[in-house]
Amino acid sequence: MRTFLIVTSLIVILAAALLYAAxxxxxxxxxxxxxxxxxxxxxxxxxxxxxxxxxxxxxxxxVRAQDxxxxxxxxxxQRSTQELAEEVAMSVDGVKMVHNFxxxxxxxxxxxxxxxxxxxxxxxxxxxxxxxxxxxLASEIGDAAFHISVEACDxxxxxxxxxxxxxxxxxxxxxxxxxxxxxxxxxxxxxxx
Length: 193
Description:
The chain is α/β, with parallel strands linked by helices. 54% of the residues lie in helices and 22% in strands.
């Protein structure tokens, strides 16, 4: 009888342990599946924003998002895609930090403006354009310009930040599009509701 009680007790304890493990496993499975769906959704949202704002060249960018941190990698043809992808990713809700590991294709690095200018000269030209854009924004929309992040690369300018109203948004875009060295404006601005 005592052996029966011990065996029965062990079976009950083992069954309880298995049920607990199964319940925990189901919970962990659901949590993992939910996190995987969230990451896939974030990745898709960021990839969509990259292609929408930077064009087909951005389709080659790989995105990995987790808990607000995003890693971008891959190879692109245009220097502006390589440089401005970080700004586009930062404009997506929930993104807190971006690591840009995007490379410029070897053939692309030897073509275009890079043939005539060194990287230092290209960066200096971009910095001058950024300064000109910031000055223009300050003169056109006043203090609201301080809430705008400006990045420029090869004549492509991204504007990211918050503006208080639609009127200043339109003025900002029009004034930057009117700057002679600006080839294209990537509008990542949010307007207060």
